[in-house]
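Z., the sequence and structure:
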Amino acid sequence: MENTGIAPKHSWGQLLVVSSLIFGMFFGSGNLIFPVHLGQMAGANWFLAALGFTISGSLFPLLAIMAVVVTKSDGLLDLARPVGKHYAAIFLILVHLTIGPFFATPRTAATAYEMAAEPFIPKSFSTVGMLLFTGIFFAVTYVAATHQSALLKIVGKYLNVGFLTLLAIVFLVAFINPMGRLSQTPTATYQANATIGGLLEGYNTLDAVALLALSVTLVHAIRGLGYQGRELTKLTAKAGLISISLEVVIYFGLVLLGALSMSQLKLSANGGVALSQIVGHYFSNVGTVLLGALVTLGVLTTAIGLVSSFAQDFHKLFPKVSYLAWLRVTTILSFLVANAGLDTIISWSLPVLMLMYPLALALILLSLTVAKRSYAGLVYKVTIAFTVLPAVLDMLNSAPAIITGWAPIQTALSLYHQLIPFAGMGLGWLVPTLLGFGLSLVWGHLRLISQRGQLPERDR
């Protein structure tokens, strides 16, 4: 669209369209199942836990979108390039493996299976059932990613409305006739630091990491409406606030739903099981089937977007390998990982998330504050350098016992927890990141003043 210099007129219709696009990018399987499980674990402290979850599950993803908008980046490589081209390439690979075949993409199929199929399959056939279900799921995903289907556009258009309507009915019935009282004692994590526990649980949504890579598509869509520069930023911010306001309401509702369920249910292995049990309690098998169908359609569209994004970006990074070849790689790997089961995928993902989130949040901070300054490269490099080590240590701290039990790692983690504030809470990266950011910001500013002082007066 030609830029005429005249900003398009704002309309509620355009604002709602963009809000819907943002909500669709935010809300996936993880956003549905993790709050319910969080509520079961937090019990009587559900409100503080939900507050933490909304920070990492809603605010951080919105800031990720705004980082792409403000920097006018045309992809994750572009966004991370001020740190260095090699770091940008490595970070892109890590992000796409995380939101792609290692965790997020297989999680879509595993969640769909647990909510749509497993309640109706005998345990003796669960392995075969999951193999067949995920095989069909990823076959459809692959075909849809190679041939854009009108059916998927229709599903994407009406899915949010259908899903939100069903969820509103579940909330209405459940809160009028609650399963019990909020008397459940929180698990150990949520007794003393419920907000921090909820914030870390929100990492599991993967949204802040994923939207650094995926929100370029959103920005192009908004530009297609005729918005540029400051008007684009304003529209995105307004639409984002509408979207996360709805998401916050849903999160608090789901967390409360999980907390109330503990009067009649046992702590579930994951939120997919818990939500199926809750819906089954109120609506029997009919509700379970309907919820399973809507969730399956929702995560299917998410999976199509993830495999397509993976193949596109890896083809750009390694152009000798075709888009279709990368698409086959990510689809097959996702199928294999999905059959490990939802619980296993979630447990595998935790150490990686403890590494990726600090790096992603540091990049968001830098993009929103110093990206346009002449000394941005210095601040980017120093801040990320201060972030990497604590992020690696947080990852090791969440690793399996076979790794954390090794004596050198035990010693390193012990020192880390003793010397660095908040390290014991899983937020040891916070102070080093802010310290590196502050020091490099002052350094860059002083260097700029020095350079200006050396220029002839006419060039200052």
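DSSP finds 19 helices and no strands in the chain. The CA atoms of residues 248 and 257 lie 14 Å apart.

Let me know what you think.
H.
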